[in-house]
Design brief:
Largest sheet: 4 strands, mixed
Radius of gyration: 16 Å
Number of helices: 5
Distance between the termini: 27 Å
Number of strands: 6
Strand content: 25-35%
Length: 149
């Protein structure tokens, strides 16, 4: 965007990264994307690997917290605390098929988020931060400093 460019930042969607993107940026940010890259760990780990490859030293990853009482995508309280298959079944029943598709939305708990960060950045300093909204931890952020940049 123009504002980013005026402040010395470059906005490049991942699908348009050049083939030689490895370690091209000091800081790579993935803001509320990881919950949308696919169901299960494989796609999420692939996404995190791309972030690590594109970064020389820093990676920041944010995601909504599955444990917050309000699910921000659907604006529905509490039902996302049910087991994922039951939560998705309810969403399908009430006409929210897009949000019910695990390839489109796969919410992460703080524990799942931490595990993915540890697996993706084993030789880095991973600092997990919490953001509060309406009485609970609504968002999680991993700030990763790669030690061997």
């Amino acid at each position: 965007s123009r504002m980013a460019a005026e402040n010395g930042f470059h906005w490049i969607p991942f699908e348009r990264l050049p083939a030689d993107h490895a370690r091209q940026f000091d800081l790579v940010i993935s803001s509320a994307v990881i919950e949308h890259v696919g169901a299960g760990d494989v796609d999420k780990l692939r996404h995190l690997r791309l972030l690590a490859e594109a970064s020389r030293q820093w990676v920041a990853v944010t995601t909504p917290n599955r444990s917050h009482w309000l699910e921000i995508h659907t604006k529905l309280p509490f039902i996302h605390w049910l087991p994922k298959p039951l939560h998705r079944k309810i969403l399908n029943r009430i006409g929210m098929q897009t949000w019910a598709d695990p390839n489109h939305l796969d919410l992460l708990s703080a524990r799942e988020f931490q595990r993915l960060m540890n697996r993706s950045f084993p030789d880095a300093q991973v600092d997990i931060r919490h953001f509060w909204l309406l009485g609970g931890i609504s968002n999680l952020m991993a700030l990763i400093e790669k030690r061997f940049a």
